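Lab notes, practical 5.
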Amino acid sequence: MSIPNRYTLVNIVKSINQRIKDITDNFSNYTEIEKVRVANAMFSELNLFHDAINTFGEVQVMDMLEAGHESYTNILDQLDYLNSSNNLLDYVSKSNLLESD
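Output from the prediction step:
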């Protein structure tokens, strides 16, 4: 994987983690429109991450992350929590939801 791809992937993961933190801390204070915007932005980034896994392979992508597969698992766990506590998926456009492979 080239350096620009690594840099982009690392930044996507950082952004996803920041969005998760922001949603955890502030979601209840957002207007309905802001909830839609934030949820869609995060799921767009998750789609990019998923595309990287499909393009480069899970092993190579996870090797690039600081905490490896544990980092990705942590993101998924946090998303499950956010959805259960805030009904996050209710705010995501259908076009941003990942389809099962």
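Observations recorded by the TA: The mean pLDDT is 83. The two ends are 23 Å apart (CA to CA).
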